[in-house]
Amino acid sequence: MGDPNIWDDAWGEQDEDWSGGGGLSKRLVPSGPVLGATLYELGPGNFMIFHFHHGSEELLIVLRGWPTLRTFAGERPLEEGAVVHFPLGPDGAHELRNDTDEPVRYVVAGIRVSPEVAEYPDLKQLTAQSRFPSQTGERLFVIHDVKEQEA
Q1: Which residues are CB-contacts of 86 (< 8 A; sequence separation ≥ 6)?
Q2: Is domain 24-113 given the CATH code 2.60.120.10 in the classification?
Q3: What is the DSSP letter of 128?
Q4: Sheet containing 35-42, strands listed edge to edge, beginning at the edge strand earlier in sequence
């Protein structure tokens, strides 16, 4: 098997898409301790769920198509070649949607820390995850429901 190629349409076996966005993905860098990079493709109507990280900064590079970026500041279309940095915490919250009739292809690269916490404001959930085993011996991946604060 050769090096990954961002224009190759072979996606291989897909992991479970627990967020329900319907996108395709393939790792460009093997899961490692520091750097991660993944190629994604969103068909028409597909999306990457609104989220932000507490430990992993990310960088988005749009390769093909015109996705819509949503942040806490609002929504805006991104053109081919756009590069967007997502810092840690709520300032880095982002969602990408394909509101067009053509596929959108992009790369997300960033640092990968373990353990990591990611929040999903629309789902009112957060995840805690680690590459290392938990007390059960399985890889740690926990989904926690966030309760609304009482006024």
Answers
A1: 52, 53, 57, 58, 59, 60, 92, 93, 94, 110
A2: yes
A3: E
A4: 24-27, 35-42, 104-111, 58-64, 83-86
Q: What is the pLDDT of residues 85-126, one digit of tens each?
A: 999 999 999 999 999 999 999 999 998 889 999 999 999 999
- Indicate the length of the chain as a whole number: 151
Confirm if 109 and 62 have CB atoms less than 8 A apart: no
Residue 91: phi, psi to the nearest 5?
A: -65, -20
Please report, for the chain, the start and end positions of each structural domain, with discontinuous segments joined by +. Answer: 24-113
> Are 67 and 98 a contacting pair, CB within 8 Å?
yes
Q: Which tens digits make up the pLDDT trace of 57-91?
A: 999 999 999 999 999 999 999 999 999 999 999 99
